[in-house]
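Student: Send me a single protein entry containing the residue sequence and its fold in token form, directly below this note:

Tutor:
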Amino acid sequence: MNTRTADQHIRKPAQGPGPGLGAGSGPVLPWAYLYWLVFLLCLEPDNVQRAWHAGNALEPAHELLRIGLAAALGTAVTPWLLYIARRQLHEGPQPRGRAAAGLVLQLLLLSAGLILAAGVLAAWVFQGRLLPRLIDLQMQLQSDGLLLTFALAGLLALIQLGHRPGGPLAPAPAPASAPAEATPASPWRTEVDVGSQGRSAVLAMDTIDWIETQGNYLALHAGTRTHLLRESMGRLEAQLDPLRFVRIHRRLVVALGRVQSLTPLGNGDAMITLADGQRLRVSRSYRRDFQARWEAPASGQGKA
């Protein structure tokens, strides 16, 4: 990259095969452009000296155009270097020898491709040719191939530093989500053990349609099945959610959600019909409390 045949020009690499190529490269591009400007300006005194010894005076406008184009093309290679850096980060540590060899090979191939593209561009813009001469490409590869490889390695190292945790290119940490609030345990009974004869069985309370006393037992009616529980009605009722279960008789408790209709009877009692068609009598001493809770908006039931 020491002659005037646009040897410092770098072409934009072809779209890479892997995902994420170029993703998120926007914030890096201004710094990459500055990097290539500094790199090219450091080489410019040697270009001026070589031209002076050869008896050729460099035109300032020509040099400014060449440096500007070279810096822009150098910036265009940034997405590919970003892809390499991110792939190394995602793949994790690898054997040093293999990783180093693979990286050097990629940079050498990329350097050769950029020099070839720069020669083509120089032929178009500065020499009026369709293709560069093979001797020019050979000279550029010999004189600038290693230098360009080091320049690419330097930019890649800066990108990798930026991607370290806390670096300017590192992804922002995801905001810590607020810990989920623990659901308070229900103070009401949610299930009951209905196992018998050594068999363990648990019945969820929300599956029960109605409950009645049968001697020393309670009959828990759930759908088409009936389960016997050795428990007193008063003790079990005290453990039931009052928004879901209500006493309708001294021997009966019904699930509010199963009640479909209520029919008043002449003596102050009432008859309710459940979702499965079962009809139960509501004694007049429990009717007012039952009807108020069944018709309450919180119960979600229809009115009689």
Q: What stands out?
A: The chain has two domains: 26-162, 191-299.
